[in-house]
Amino acid sequence: MRQSSLLLLLLFVLSACQVTGPSVKVEPPKVKIPGVEIEGHSHGTFCPPGQAKKGKC
Question: Rounded distance, CA 57 to CA 44, Å?
Answer without folding.
Answer: 9
